[in-house]
Each structure stands twice: as C-alpha cells, then as structure tokens.
Amino acid sequence: MRIAALAALALAVPACGTAAAPQGPGAGPATLRTLAARLKSAKGGETIRLAPGDYGRVVFPRGGHSPAITVEATGATFEGLVLNGTGGVTVRGGTIRGTGGRSYGIGIRDSDGVRIEGMSITNTHRGVVVNESRNVALVGNELTGLISDGINIALSSHVLVQRNRCHDFSPNLAVFDAAGKKLRDGDHPDCIQAWSRPTRAPVSDVQVLDNVMEGNMQGIFFGNHVRGGVDDGGFDRVTIRGNRIRVTMSGIVLDDARDSEVADNQVSQFPGAIFATRPAFRLKPNVRVSGARNRACGNVVTTGGVNQGGGRCP
Predict the structure, then answer these.
(1) Comparison of pLDDT for 218 and 306, the residue scoring more
(2) Out of 70, 158, 285, 295, which could bridge 20 as a Cys pair, Cβ 3.0 to 4.6 Å?
(3) By the 8 A CB rule, do 291 and 274 touch?
(4) To the nearest whole number, what is the mean pLDDT of the chain?
C-alpha cells in the first residue's frame, strides 16, 4: 500500500520552486551586521540574500511567516543555525562548520514550516536536530565529518527527509584495556535516527526518500523502547523508500510502527567499516520492520544480513 496521507506532506512545507517576494528596493544582500535586523523586520514572502562571509551562530527570531521567507545563503558560512519557535522559513545553500564537541549544526525546535535545502554541514556532533516540530523538510543536504548523528527526529510530525547524503563521519571510538574492559564509550552514529516518548504523540507522517549514506554509521534507525513497562509509543505512517545504504550495521530499523512502508531500499556493508562502540565487532547491515499494518518489499540486502521485506512489491 502507498500511504496516501503522506502525499500532502510536500505541500505543507515551503517548496523549492515557490516564488518569494524580492528584497526591498536598494536593500541589497544582507551582511553579518545587517542580517539580524533583516530577519526581525521580515513580514512574510521576502527573499533575503546573504553576501559571502562568515555569519557565526545565527538565531532566528521567534514567530511565523506566511508566506514563508527565504534565506538564500549560497557562499555564506555559519557556525550553526537555531530555529526555536519559528515558522515559515526556508534556508537554501551555505555551509555550516561547527565547533566539534557537542555542537549541533541546525537545531529546529517547536517550529512549523521550516525547510533546509542544499546545505553542507560538517564538524558538528549532530547535523540537524528536529524536536517537537511540524512540517519540516530537509532536502538535498550533505552531512560529512560529523561525530555522531546526521539527522535526528524527535517528538515531531510531517517531516520530509529527501536526497540527503551522509558520509565520512568521524565518531570517537570506544577505549578498552588489555583485558577487554571498556574504559570509555564511543559514539553511536546514525545517518537518520528518530524516537518517540510516552508523554507525547508518537513521531508520525515521516518520509525518508532517496537518501545516500555511507561509512562508519548505522543507516536509518527508528528504534522504540519500553522502560519500566512504559512504551515510548512507536511510530505512525513512516515511509522509507529508495535509499542507498552502505554502512556498518543496522541498515534500516523501523520498530513498532503502524501503517508504514519500507520499500525499494539497497543495503550493503561499507568495506572496512567499524562500529565505534564495539570496534572488534563486524556486524552485518540488515532491514528490520515490526509493528502492525506495515508494507515491506523490494528491499535488497547484499551482505547476508536479515532482510524483512525482500520480496517484489506488488
């Protein structure tokens, strides 16, 4: 089955081809000195073009825009972007070079109608974190040189993750003594990871389409937990389709999902890949799907791992 309810997702997020009102006469490109004021004064529909340069950490003002504003950031560099309580914003182009450590490239929280497109994100702990948000699109971004996860989706709904690329992550490895006792844990990187919590509605209406992931990481991990008898809630209406995954382990995991689809994905093992928390292990990437009323088909796993969904799609 195709999940018809997801067909409207792309319409809910500002699209690449959506026309936006130009900048005011004589405004010219925004600079480090003028960007904050330009964002604060935006009424809706404007396109704010950035002059090339380093903008540091940019915090978007709270509040929504209808129609959305567009920040054309090609040629600009950032330490990070923060969108908290923000709506109707598209950021297109540009590079995020983080500070390492525990930094986020882009933090999206309590926001509605945010689109991040064509950005390059590197040297952060996590690339993009979407938390308690709705109608978010992450399209055509490159995530490389990260310490942990590429994209996190938590407590959110109507999220599109399409044509992104995760590669060449640099997780910290676990450290063991001569007897094999772990002295320091390592990072547990995923290209795309999502989770729900029992105090909120489950993560729902997520599309993960045509992404490429390669290297020392897991691929797509929608994991569910039961803690002290309390279920996190699983996932509703998730579509994972057309992704190409060459990773260390857990190519695709969709746990305790309902009315979801995992189809036409290719999963294989990255040559020489190691799992950061257990470097001595060589685990086979796989496709695992559990829950109710799900469709899994057309998936190809070439390294002998479990494939729950290898038959032809009807």
Answers:
(1) 218
(2) 70
(3) no
(4) 89
pTM of the predicted protein model: 0.89
Alpha-carbon 244 to chain mean position: 15
Q: Which two tokens stand for residue 66?
A: 């209808």
Segment 81-92 shows an average pLDDT of: 98
Residue length of the chain = 314
Task: Supply the DSSP symbol for 38.
Answer: H
Half-sphere CA count of 148, side-chain side, radius 13 A: 17
Please name which of 212, 276, 224 lies closest in space to residue 249, comparing C-alpha atoms: 276
Distance CA 92, CA 156 (A): 22
Q: What does the pLDDT look like over 202-255, one tens digit per residue?
A: 999 999 999 999 998 899 999 998 888 888 999 999 999 999 999 987 899 999
Under a CB-based contact definition with an 8 Å cutoff, are residues 136 and 108 in contact? Answer: yes
Question: What secondary structure does DSSP assign to the chain, as a single string?
Answer: ---GGGGGHHHHS--TT---BPPPTT---B-TTTHHHHHHH--SSBEEEBPSEE--EEEPPSEEEEEEEEEE-TTEEESEEEEESEEEEEEES-EEE--STT-EEEEEES-EEEEEES-EEESSSEEEEEES-EEEEEES-EEES-SS-SEEEES-EEEEEES-EEE---PPPPEE-TTS-EEE-----EEEEEE--TTSPPEEEEEEES-EEESSSEEEEE---EETTEE---EEEEEEES-EEEESEEEEEEEEEES-EEES-EEEEPTT---TT-TT--PPP-EEEEEES-EEES-EE-SS--BTT-SPP-
- Sorting pLDDT into bands at 50, 70 and 90, what band is 187? confident
